[in-house]
Amino acid sequence: MATAATLTTVLSGCGALDTAMDCVKTADAIATSVQKLQQAVSNASNDVTQIEESLNSISTELGNLKNTTDNADLSKAVDDLTKGVETVRTAVKNGDTTPDIAPITDAAGEVAKVCTPG
After folding, report:
1. What is the pTM of this model?
2. What is the 3-state secondary structure (H, E, C) of the chain?
3. Is the per-residue pLDDT at 29 higher than 90?
């Protein structure tokens, strides 16, 4: 019986570790996407479609992260980031080629903070 309990504890720990690693990987992917978004906004006069591609990439990563967490702080950061993405997406659709992406960068920082072990 002790072996079964130990195995359950180890497997539960592995599950938590896998979730944490997924969070870190996704936070890194989001950070990369946010950097691409910043570059796309800087170059928007050349190609505004880069902004949309970056926003789509962030949205995909957010969907992956949201589906794998039950952490309240992380869920709030993901929700804030999602709102920021939608605000920028709406601004771009309305013709803004230099949208304010500060809410996205701020929320991405929160995601990174929550996902960073330590």
Report:
1. 0.74
2. CHHHHHHHHHHHHHHHHHHHHHHHHHHHHHHHHHHHHHHHHHCCCCCCHHHHHHHHHHHHHHHHHHCCCCCHHHHHHHHHHHHHHHHHHHHHHCCCCCCCCHHHHHHHHHHHHHHCCC
3. no
